[in-house]
Amino acid sequence: QNVMRFWSRLLTAMTLMGGSSALLSPTAAPTQPPSLDDYRAFHSMVCSPPTARRCCNSFLLGGGLALFMPSDYSDHFRRHGVAASADAMADNGGGSEARFKHDSTHDLTPVTYYALVVVSLTGLSTLLGLTDEVEATEYPGDGALASPELLRSRRDPGNVVFSDQVLEYIARRRAVSSDQTARPRVKRRFEYDFRLIGANVVMLHLVFPGESSLHLAEVYHIRNPVIKALGSLIMDAAKFLSPYLLAPLGGVVNRSSKKEA
Description:
Blueprint: H1 2-18, H2 36-43, H3 49-60, E1 66-70, H4 74-80, H5 82-90, H6 110-120, H7 122-127, E2 131-138, H8 164-173, E3 185-194, E4 199-207, E5 215-222, H9 225-246
Signal peptide: 1-22
Keywords: Signal
């Protein structure tokens, strides 16, 4: 029954993509902000189209960033540095090698979300009861200090880690950045183990005190090397195809990611 309900939601989403796509449009007006349960459904990859839109908009329309990083993401920062990576993305620097390809800020929409749900099998994992929710926590006020405990997976601490380089990248890259040395705080923390595909994922919702933007950072580790290789291809394909998926909806929100003077 759960599987049938899931595919019904997907068919609804696909219908909206092909016809009246207000629910999935990245420029659709926001409604009420998502609840913790909305985000739980979103991150476990089984949410409804209206919930997917609300969750995507909570990052997209607020000027936030969205990073989806494999566990070996730090190799990029070792080669190019954090400052050069952030500047290359902010300046939209074409084919610059310093561009951080795991920065998916302009690719996060309900359309690409459902594409990932299908091809990654994460939604199916949850519906089959093969996904463990390790944590889903919301911190009050300005959130919690980004301590080492919150930046490391509880189930796979040796592989899934948010480094200081990630926090620095977000601080430099964010749209409103009067203080590039500021350290974000953790507003929400989620962790899931999608056992069907052997993937452990930690999702952080990050905020800066005094700023309204909400940023999403995810680190995932796929234990099976074959599935890991396929997962990398899927993520690259999703980023490549996202402009074509978004074209019928009028493209992505045109918001500058450059620092204000």
